[in-house]
Amino acid sequence: MYTRDEIFQLIDEYGLPQDWNPDGSQGPERYIEAQIWDDALLAGFLGQSG
Known about the structure:
By secondary structure, this protein is mainly α.
């Protein structure tokens, strides 16, 4: 798991997966999965105060 800043550092160092492996010949890692969490939005969805 990486923070936003850490992901940008990794992209700066290694490039985007599709750039170094555009045809998938080096493995299936041609994407970056992101899960973005914001407690305030979740609280609003659940009807709770922040």
